[in-house]
Structures are given as structure tokens and as C-alpha cells.
Amino acid sequence: MLQVCDHPLIHEEIGRLRDRACPSAEFRQRIRRVASLMLPQVTANLPTRPTSVETPLEVTAGARLQRPIVLAPILRAGIGFLDGFADLLPEASVGHIGLARNEETLQPEPYYFKVPPNLAEAEVIVLDPMLATGGSAAEAISALKKAGAVHLRFACLVAAPEGVEHLESAFPELPIFTAALDRCLNEKGYILPGLGDAGDRIFGTV
């Protein structure tokens, strides 16, 4: 269930992020902005429960989120995508999923997994700037499901059709949100036109 977050401000930011001359500090700021711009669409159908609110003048109807939010960035690049979501979801808990891509096999290799308890009661938003082959995202979602997560959605900055197909095949019920759907992967598993290695560009390790 792919949704492309289509907004002029997102288009502007993605274009600037693609520029190879964009320095790391600016790159981090722009990713944060895109995440904040995506958040309304990513969370648009979260269930709520009715409540009552006492205003200075009278009691009126209100709403609260039905379930707590857990943000689950895939390390390391997902950390750079986290702040824009956390800024607007300050009460969200944060889990961390460490996966490194083997550059020869292109397969994810887990090295860290630490998430809040009671995942079954939460809305879990998995974060990774790049959805390339889909291997890391699928591995992370499988691990979260094994840990008890039921209500999951995935958000990325740029997606390749191959990665989307992988996730949709493995998890047909999973909502997938991206700011840009790119053309394809190259022979090394990088997204084209893409924006390079997001982790390297976020952390200045190019």
C-alpha cells in the first residue's frame, strides 16, 4: 500500500537533497524538514478515542490517540530521519534497529535491536531514508513483528520500485510512505537517480 507524499515543499526539498554539492549540515536540516512535511500524511489515519475537554468556558468534545506511538529508525541512516518525526511527536517512544548492508550480497546483517516493551499496544512507524532493495526494511519489520508489533507502517525519503515490490509482497497490509518514488536500482543496489548514500551524507562520512 504505497503512498507518495506529494507536496510542492517536499518536491523542493528533495531536489535540493539530490544535489551532490549539498553539505552534511544542510542535508540533515532538509531531511528533518521533509520528515515533518510527511508526518501529517503518515499519521492521517491513526485511530483516536473520544474524550471531553474543559475549556475556560464550557466542556466540549475532544480526541486522543488510541494507541501510543513508537518511532523505530533503522540504524544508522534512520537516525537522520528521526528528528523531523520526533519534533511533532514528542511523547513517542523510540526503538533502535541496527542493520548493516553487506555490500557484496546486498543483504542486511543485524547487529542491534532495542525497542520499548508492549509493542502490541503501539502504532509503530519504521523509519529509513532509503528503500532500495527492501531487504533492511523487511528484516526490521520481521524483527518488530517477532517482538510483538501489530500496527506497523513504514516511512522513507526515497524509494525504488524494487524495494516497494519487496515490501508489498512480504507485508501486503503494510502502509508505505515515501517522499519520492525513483526509477530503479543500479547493479550495486543504489537508487537511481537517488541521492547517494544517505547515511554517509547525513553524518559526513562520504
Main pleated-sheet profile: 9 strands, mixed
If you average the pLDDT, what whole number results?
A: 93
Residues in helices, as a percent range: 25-40%
Head-to-tail CA distance between termini: 33 Å
**How many alpha or pi helices?**
6
According to DSSP, the number of beta strands is: 13
How would you describe this protein?
The protein is α/β, with parallel strands linked by helices. It is built from 6 helices and 13 strands. The strands form 3 sheets. Strands 1, 4, 5, 6, 7, 8, 9, 10 and 11 form a 9-stranded mixed sheet that branches. Strands 2-3 form a two-stranded antiparallel ribbon. The protein has a two-stranded antiparallel ribbon with strand order 12-13. A hairpin with a 4-residue loop joins strand 2 (48-54) and strand 3. Helix 2 (24-42) packs across helix 3. The longest helix is centred in the first third of the chain and has 19 residues, at 24-42. The model has no long low-confidence stretch (mean pLDDT 93).
What distinguishing features does this structure have?
206 residues; alpha/beta; two-stranded antiparallel ribbon; 13 strands; transferase; EC 2.4.2.9; PRTase_dom
Summarize the structure.
The chain has 206 residues and is of the alpha/beta class.
Walk me through the topology.
Blueprint (H helix, E strand, L loop, with lengths): L1 E3 L3 H11 L5 H19 L5 E7 L4 E7 L3 E7 L1 H12 L4 E2 L1 E6 L6 E7 L8 E5 L2 E2 L3 H12 L4 E9 L1 H10 L5 E6 L2 E2 L5 E2 L5 H6 L3
Parallel strand pairs: 1-11, 4-5, 4-6, 4-8, 8-10, 9-10, 10-11
Antiparallel strand pairs: 2-3, 6-7, 12-13
